[in-house]
Amino acid sequence: MRIVLVGPPGAGKGTQATRLAEKLRIPHISTGDLFRANISRQTDLGKLAKSYMDAGNLVPDEVTIAMAKDRMEQPDAVDGFLLDGFPRNVQQAEALDALLKSEDIKLDAVLDLEVPEEEVVKRIAGRRICRNDSSHVFHESYSAPKQAGVCDTCGGELYQRDDDSEDTVRTRLEVYHTQTEPIIDYYKAQGLVVTISSLGPVDEITRRALEALKREDATQ
């Protein structure tokens, strides 16, 4: 299957992308991984992207699209892929359509992870990270430490990252609504969108997604 995964920040896209890609036996292609891989390998695209990033500018769509094209042409993606973080706007979605059409392939589904805005704020703003080890993550509501502000594992101080503050989360949501959410309507016009709730246990969300994709695949 060829799938695009969309949803607001805090919807659990990264977790579900990894799990779904494994279950469906297709590569998980994330924008973040593409950038890191190209920059670390010092490819021409990586050097170009880094030049924009070092200058504090957004990487142009055409560079992101070129990276995605290169990755989708790798042998492990011949029979399918799951795109996570791309496309981010309608212009990228149109470019992806043109790219796929030139290769005589098409998307099978656009999986939309739906979650209420206040739940997104609660999920992200409640996170606390250990200053000694960033892999020690707690949550004020879902996995609170035994002692407030103290890491259960090493006793380090727990803190809230700047980009996890409520104001920042709401700004990120506004950017999502303005830039990324319109691609849902774009793909709905093509009959590709499958929407599921991203509330509940991780395993249940994965099961929900697989069932929805199976139904979508059966109608193709």
TrEMBL record:
<feature type="binding site">
    <location>
        <position position="36"/>
    </location>
    <ligand>
        <name>AMP</name>
    </ligand>
</feature>
<dbReference type="GO" id="GO:0004017">
    <property type="term" value="F:AMP kinase activity"/>
</dbReference>
<feature type="binding site">
    <location>
        <position position="200"/>
    </location>
    <ligand>
        <name>ATP</name>
    </ligand>
</feature>
<keyword id="KW-0547">Nucleotide-binding</keyword>
<keyword id="KW-0808">Transferase</keyword>
<feature type="binding site">
    <location>
        <position position="92"/>
    </location>
    <ligand>
        <name>AMP</name>
    </ligand>
</feature>
<protein>
    <recommendedName>
        <fullName>Adenylate kinase</fullName>
        <ecNumber>2.7.4.3</ecNumber>
    </recommendedName>
</protein>
<keyword id="KW-0067">ATP-binding</keyword>
<keyword id="KW-0545">Nucleotide biosynthesis</keyword>
<dbReference type="Pfam" id="PF05191">
    <property type="entry name" value="ADK_lid"/>
</dbReference>
<feature type="binding site">
    <location>
        <position position="127"/>
    </location>
    <ligand>
        <name>ATP</name>
    </ligand>
</feature>
<feature type="region of interest" description="NMP">
    <location>
        <begin position="30"/>
        <end position="59"/>
    </location>
</feature>
<dbReference type="InterPro" id="IPR033690">
    <property type="entry name" value="Adenylat_kinase_CS"/>
</dbReference>
<dbReference type="InterPro" id="IPR027417">
    <property type="entry name" value="P-loop_NTPase"/>
</dbReference>
<feature type="domain" description="Adenylate kinase active site lid">
    <location>
        <begin position="127"/>
        <end position="163"/>
    </location>
</feature>
<keyword id="KW-0963">Cytoplasm</keyword>
<comment type="function">
    <text>Catalyzes the reversible transfer of the terminal phosphate group between ATP and AMP. Plays an important role in cellular energy homeostasis and in adenine nucleotide metabolism.</text>
</comment>
<comment type="pathway">
    <text>Purine metabolism; AMP biosynthesis via salvage pathway; AMP from ADP: step 1/1.</text>
</comment>
<feature type="binding site">
    <location>
        <begin position="85"/>
        <end position="88"/>
    </location>
    <ligand>
        <name>AMP</name>
    </ligand>
</feature>
<dbReference type="Pfam" id="PF00406">
    <property type="entry name" value="ADK"/>
</dbReference>
<feature type="binding site">
    <location>
        <position position="172"/>
    </location>
    <ligand>
        <name>AMP</name>
    </ligand>
</feature>
<dbReference type="InterPro" id="IPR000850">
    <property type="entry name" value="Adenylat/UMP-CMP_kin"/>
</dbReference>
<feature type="binding site">
    <location>
        <position position="161"/>
    </location>
    <ligand>
        <name>AMP</name>
    </ligand>
</feature>
<feature type="binding site">
    <location>
        <position position="31"/>
    </location>
    <ligand>
        <name>AMP</name>
    </ligand>
</feature>
<feature type="binding site">
    <location>
        <begin position="57"/>
        <end position="59"/>
    </location>
    <ligand>
        <name>AMP</name>
    </ligand>
</feature>
<dbReference type="InterPro" id="IPR006259">
    <property type="entry name" value="Adenyl_kin_sub"/>
</dbReference>
<comment type="similarity">
    <text>Belongs to the adenylate kinase family.</text>
</comment>
<feature type="binding site">
    <location>
        <begin position="10"/>
        <end position="15"/>
    </location>
    <ligand>
        <name>ATP</name>
    </ligand>
</feature>
<comment type="subunit">
    <text>Monomer.</text>
</comment>
<dbReference type="InterPro" id="IPR007862">
    <property type="entry name" value="Adenylate_kinase_lid-dom"/>
</dbReference>
<feature type="binding site">
    <location>
        <begin position="137"/>
        <end position="138"/>
    </location>
    <ligand>
        <name>ATP</name>
    </ligand>
</feature>
<keyword id="KW-0418">Kinase</keyword>
